[in-house]
Amino acid sequence: MTDSTTCAVCARTSETYTCVACQSRIRGLLAQMPEQWTYLHMSREREQRGGDSRSSTRLHAPLPGREDTLNLMGPHARQSVTDAQDQVGPVPVLAVLESWCQVVTEERGLTPARVHVSSLTDRLLRHLPWIVDQAWVADFELELRELMKAVKAITRPSPDGFRCRCRARAATC
User: How many CB atoms lie within 10 A of CB 59?
Assistant: First the structure.
């Protein structure tokens, strides 16, 4: 007979601190990150729209790319954001991954990982058996899930399997 406990992430009955389903979900989120990062890079450009080509009517030059995408890809503050007004939109991908890698690195006495999506996700995947037994695993899973939700809101193709630049999604596109 085995002792049952409650999963730290989903609160279902589990034989381990984090249930197998949650462990798999976390592994999947981490494994998708490098590919989604590539798709995020491909989604940077602003869509071209027809209309007046005169720029003199604008007060400010347009951003060189999509603001939501640039925010997720952009540089992040090295210190914690202390004022809620400073953070607009989701936390950048590298900031989330790097902060969790720092926790793993410090607690396990490792050399720091290179700040690159693949290096950071590899570090986290390599230490996932240890991570899923930590008291903070629910926060880790929530941040990864929210980050992936924000990324996929940009990179996910349309329901019919392709992303039309005109967004009409008509049969003539």
Answer: 4
Contacts of 2 (CB under 8 A, 6+ apart): 15
Amino acid occupying residue 51: G
pLDDT in tens, 105-146: 999 999 999 989 999 999 999 999 999 999 999 999 999 999
User: What is the distance between the alpha carbons of residues 129 and 126, in angstroms, rounded to a whole number?
Assistant: 8
What is the token pair recorded at 33?
A: 């990150």
- pTM of the predicted model, to two decimals? 0.72
pLDDT per residue as tens digits for the range 10-60: 999 998 999 999 999 999 999 999 998 888 887 766 554 544 455 555 555
Calpha distance 143→48 (Å, rounded):
33
Cβ-Cβ contacts under 8 Å for 69 (sequence gap 6 or more): 40, 43, 44, 154
Contact in structure between 43 and 69 (CB atoms under 8 Å): yes
Distances (CA, A) of 143 to 32, 50, 146: 14, 38, 5
